[in-house]
Predict the structure of Germin-like protein.
Amino acid sequence: ADPDPLQDLCVADLNASISVNGFPCKPLHEVKSNDFFYDGLSKEGNTTNVFGSKVSIGDVLAFPGLNTLGVSWNRVDFAAGTGVNPPHLHPRASETLVVLKGKLLVGFITTTHVLYSKVLKAGEMFVFPRGLVHFQLNVGKGKAFFLAAFNSQNPGVVILPTTLFVTTPSIPNEVLSKAFQIDAKVISDIRSKLGS
Ligand code: GLV
Ligand code: MN
């Protein structure tokens, strides 16, 4: 989904003082093999949190060699039991995932409220169309993890529970009570459990 590159490579200079769509290129004479290497997805993420999951991100900010190339990866780990990657969407990319360990229920919802979902085991893939809400739930006995590939160097993520309940400043209670048909007590309960 990203624009096409206009040169072979353009390792991001994340600290450049000018701002462009993406990042300016670091000077070619400073570019090293290690600029095209990233090991941030090699380790299991720490899933000790309310969701029981951890997304390790390999976008252009973590891996500057991806700049202008239109691709990136994430790794998502799930705690044994009920680890969930909560409903979220990526504004700038479709996502394909391949399960490497465990058993996961994955699904996405269309703009006409149809859920497409399936239980996947190691080696199996699924695709979430760009911009649609999706989730994954560990339904196996042990831990699980997958790798996900995106057709953007910077897919972005809108996580629905935190986007709605953990903002600065807060979305007015009147909005959330009417939208979800719940009272202020339920709202503050959700907020405190999600850590705000
Ligand atoms: C999983 O859906 C992810 O966005 O990493
Ligand atoms: Mn996703």
In short: Residues 166 and 192 are 9 Å apart (CA to CA). The chain has a mean pLDDT of 97. Residues 184-193 form the longest helix (10 residues).
